[in-house]
Design brief:
Elements: E1 2-8, H1 30-45, E2 52-55, H2 59-72, E3 80-81, H3 91-99, E4 105-110, H4 114-123, E5 137-144, E6 149-156, H5 158-164
Helix pairs in contact: 1-2, 1-5
Length: about 170
């Protein structure tokens, strides 16, 4: 029914930095931008073609989504910011948003532990299956959205994506 790619934002400014803005406005670091770009090249090498791209409105997720979309040839003007991908949201909120889409392949950019909770909801477990590293990607093949049912079909750590993109 839907291939759902969950992408964690790239490396962002350290919360402990005295110059750090509020959490919702923390930007990617130059290293985070570079590594996100390299990871995006890897996802592009896998010939992923999204029909829709959703992102958390928090700056680091938006920046990561823009980088991935630029690499993948998806117009950044088509990126949809949704509160359902904020780090404080519930998986149910995201599934409601996904239910509104007429898309077969969707990329979602967000935060941990929220993305892990989404994976757990699809797999019907509260066990910690995996932790997405920054700019890492999990792919779920959803049989249905409500109630969520599907399989975790692939997990791409950022280092693997960077290698694929070379």
């Amino acid at each position: 029914m839907m291939l759902l790619y969950l992408v964690r934002h790239g490396i962002a400014m350290d919360r402990e930095d005295p110059k750090c803005p509020p959490d919702t406005e923390r930007p990617l670091t130059p290293k985070g931008m570079k590594r996100s770009h390299a990871a995006a090249l890897g996802l592009h090498a896998l010939k992923i073609h999204p029909d829709a791209v959703l992102t958390s409105p928090w700056l680091r997720a938006v920046q990561t989504a823009e980088i991935f979309c630029e690499v993948m040839g998806f117009s950044s003007k088509k990126i949809i910011q949704v509160d359902a991908l904020k780090g404080t949201s519930t998986p149910a909120e995201l599934f409601r948003e996904l239910g509104k889409l007429k898309a077969k392949t969707v990329l979602c950019f967000g935060h941990e532990p929220h993305l892990h909770l989404v994976i757990g909801q699809v797999l019907h477990t509260s066990a910690k299956i995996t932790e997405l590293k920054k700019a890492g990607v999990a792919c779920l093949d959803l049989d249905r959205i409500s109630p969520p049912q599907g399989q975790l079909v692939s997990l791409y750590p950022p280092g693997t994506l960077r290698e694929l993109g070379k």
